[in-house]
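2024-03-11 09:14:02 INFO receiving multi-entity request
2024-03-11 09:14:02 INFO entity count = two
2024-03-11 09:14:03 INFO echoing inputs for audit
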Amino acid sequence: MDLTNLSGTFLFDDESGLREVAKVIRQAGIPVMTGAVRFFPVDGITRPYILE
Amino acid sequence: MIQNFAQRLQIVVLEDNSERREAMMDCLRDRFARYDIVLFATAVEMIDHLRRHPDLPLVIALDHDLDLVPIAGKRVIDPGTGRDVADYLASQSPNCPVVIHSSNVPAVTGMIQTLEESGWSVSRVIPDADTRWIRQAWITAIRNAIVSAVAPATVHSDHS
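2024-03-11 09:21:47 INFO inference complete, emitting structure
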C-alpha cells in the first residue's frame, strides 16, 4: 500500500499533513511500510519524493 | 543554460482518437491537476517535444497505431507510430515510466522489449471498444506508474 497526497481524499499542500495521516493510519494498526509515504509537491514543478 | 522560469512537470500522451483524447484529458485533469498535460497525435511532434523537454515528463503514455492526418486537398501526413517514439526513448536515458495502451499485440510486444532493454519501466493497458477502460484501467495504470517511479528520499536530500 502507498500513501500519497495525489487524490482528492488527502490533498495536502505540505508534508506535515501527509505525515499526520500516516501517523493516524499506523496508530489504527494498519501498517504503512517504509518508503510508502510519497509526497507530490503542489507546485507541479518539484519532482515527487518519498517522505518516509 | 539560464532558465527564466520553472516549468511544471508533464504527463505526455500519444493518442490520435478524439474520444480517447477527451476521456484522457478529463481523467488526467481530475487526478493530476498540478501537472501539465500534453497530448500529441503524431509521433514526430511528440519526439520533437521530448527532445526539447527531456526532463519534464512525469510519465509517458503511448498508443501504437495512428491514423493518417489529412491536410490540404487530398494529401495526408504519415503520423508515424508509437514504436517511433519508443525507439527514440530507447536511445535516451530512462527518466520516467511509460504506459502503453494499444491492442496491437505484436507492436506492443516490440515496444515493451525495446524500452525495457534500455532500462525503461513499462506497463501496458489493453484498450476496449468504448472509453470506459480509460476511466478505469488506464488512469489507474498511469497513477501506479507515477507513484511507483517516485525516487527514494535519499536522492532528494534538498527536501527536509
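2024-03-11 09:21:48 INFO post-check: Chain A touches chain B at residues 2, 4, 6-7, 35, 38-45, 47-52 (CB under 8 Å).
2024-03-11 09:21:48 INFO post-check: The CA atoms of residues 2 and 36 of chain A lie 4 Å apart.
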